[in-house]
Design brief:
The chain is mainly α. It has 30 helices and no strands. The protein is globular. It starts with 10 loop residues before the first helix and ends in a 6-residue tail after the last helix. The model has no long low-confidence stretch (mean pLDDT 82).
Length: 544
């Protein structure tokens, strides 16, 4: 008998499967296969291919209407040396910010595309330029529209009181007044003033999805049973394929305990976009109704889309262990015993290993403990996050997690400041300044001042790192120091741009995190001899 050789899938196998699924418009399965191929490409020889896969995954996320995840992946591959990868990333960001109406970011990436000389598809660049020109020179909207737009931005920024005050002064006879009433009803529901919310609902557009949601929620919370039942039935008859509307319908259905409606709208939403929270509610509703196979399929999809989400990991394990219908909260509040058991086991491992860092890192590679660590990162205290990040930074899974968080435009800035020092200190597999550049782009969305030739990299690197730390009077400080440095090194051959950037960062005194020479050397990966050589040269030129 011959020897049976078991087939071992490799990077090319998963990548080809991903392409096939993408062409069949099965974007979730395409993402699963791309992610597997990405794991195989996690070595120095395959870094360029990893960037290609990142762009492919970003395209899948775009088709699934998951903007935040799309941005994160495009940011990662934007500075790649492969022209096609960089081009696709720039064009992808242009389309995202153009569709979202973010004029400042759109202009930045349009300028970046022009500066990079992307002439391969100038017809697309020209079309995008024309599109931007139309936006820039459009007829100025009336004051009421500007007030409504500003109110929306304040709501997105969490400035609820200011948003309420602004929306309340929009005149009742204006065309945008019904939309303002919809937003005001949402604010009143959030603050618990349900009767006031119902007053605004009467003045809002009754066909608007947010109005329907506000009506159901306010009547339910106010205890007006008869009217509530009528509103719920009207909601149940609603038909839409809009991602935002379906997400709102699922959210309010979960709050009022209508699992049947969560399932109905969830089945519609998953065909369009597997948005995290609504889809998690959908999976829970399916498990509560005894449709365990469908619930598990949804959780597998969510795990592939959101690989670092602790709540999804917990519910995946809970639903996988079910043999009968469950009684989970439709709003996806974790059962107390599940959360406490996971954290208790993690604390036990930490106590058992004590100060033995090597043993602790070895134990924390355990798949089961990943969920507990992610729970601490997402909901623990700042000190716990710092300690754990420093311990697990060398574990590949958490190294990827930290890098992912640092370039995620939606990740809280406070948590980025916790993870960044760990990344600068521990993650040395590739230059850390690229991560700093990506963070700066995601947070600020604008280019630094233009500097030519060999100085551009040094300027860009230092600008990104210093902006990240929020230096006061940053622009003036930075330009002064850079001009002094530039003048002191005029005519120097083979300038070590990262060493120049390190010296520059060292000289901006207001950035406390960069006052130490060793910190600058490690941060920018500069050559020690070059660093101190340039430091000596620039000292006589200092004016401060």
């Amino acid at each position: 008998m011959g020897t049976v050789v078991r087939f071992k899938p490799d990077m090319d196998y998963y990548y080809a499967r991903g392409l096939t699924q993408y062409e069949s418009e099965n974007f979730i399965d395409a993402l699963k296969n791309y992610r597997e191929a990405y794991k195989f490409a996690d070595n120095p020889e395959e870094k360029d291919f990893q960037a290609i896969i990142e762009v492919e995954m970003a395209s899948c996320y775009r088709h699934l209407h998951l903007t935040r995840e799309t941005q994160t992946l495009y940011y990662k591959s934007l500075t790649n040396k492969i022209p096609d990868v960089a081009f696709d990333s720039v064009i992808g960001l242009i389309e995202i910010f153009g569709a979202n109406g973010n004029d400042e970011a759109l202009k930045y990436y349009m300028d970046l595309a022009a500066k990079k000389g992307f002439s391969r598809e100038m017809d697309f660049i020209d079309a995008a330029t024309h599109f931007y020109a139309q936006r820039e020179y459009r007829v100025e909207p009336p004051p009421e529209q500007n007030m409504l737009d500003l109110g929306r931005k304040l709501l997105e920024a969490g400035q609820y009181e200011f948003a309420r005050q602004l929306l309340e002064v929009i005149p009742p006879d204006s065309s945008v007044y019904p939309q303002a009433c919809t937003r005001l009803a949402t604010l009143c529901n959030a603050s618990g003033d349900y009767e006031k919310a119902l007053e605004y609902v009467k003045k809002a557009d009754p066909a608007d999805a947010e109005t329907m949601v506000n009506t159901v929620l306010a009547l339910y919370k106010a205890g007006r049973t008869d009217e509530y039942e009528e509103a719920v039935e009207e909601l149940a008859r609603a038909e839409t394929d809009d991602v935002t509307a379906l997400g709102q319908f699922i959210r309010v259905s979960a709050i009022v305990g209508r699992g049947d409606l969560v399932i109905k709208f969830g089945r519609l939403l998953i065909r369009v976009s597997p948005v995290r929270t609504p889809m998690l509610c959908y999976a829970v509703a399916l498990s509560n109704a005894g449709e365990l196979r469908e619930a598990r399929k949804v959780m597998v999809a969510l795990q592939s889309l959101y690989p670092y989400d602790a709540v999804i990991r917990v519910y995946s394990s809970l639903i996988a262990a079910l043999t009968a219908p469950a009684d989970f909260s439709l709003t996806c509040e974790l059962p107390n015993n599940a959360e406490s058991d996971i954290l208790s086991e993690l604390n036990g491992v930490l106590a058992e290993c004590g100060t033995d860092r090597a043993l602790l890192r070895s134990r924390l590679r355990n798949e089961k403990l990943r969920t507990g660590i992610l729970m601490v990162f997402q909901a623990g205290s700042d000190s716990s996050k710092r300690i754990l990040a420093d311990i697990v930074a060398d574990i590949p899974y958490f190294e990827r997690y930290i890098r992912h968080c640092l370039i995620d435009p939606g990740f809280p800035d406070a948590d980025k400041r916790i993870l960044l020092p760990v990344a600068l200190k521990r993650l040395k597999k590739r230059p850390v300044y690229l991560t700093c550049r990506d963070i700066c782009r995601a947070l600020y969305g604008k280019a630094p001042a233009r500097i030519g030739s060999r100085w551009s990299d040094a300027y860009y690197i230092a600008y990104s790192a210093i902006a990240l730390f929020g230096c006061e009077n940053f622009e003036r400080e930075f330009d002064t120091v850079f001009e002094n440095l530039h003048a002191s090194l005029e005519g120097e051959n083979n300038v070590d741009s990262v060493a120049v950037a390190a010296v520059l960062a060292r000289n901006v005194k207001k950035v406390s995190a960069l006052r130490d020479d060793e910190c600058c050397i490690e941060l920018f990966g500069a050559n020690r001899e070059n660093y101190f050589s340039y430091l000596d040269k620039v000292k006589p030129k200092r004016t401060r």
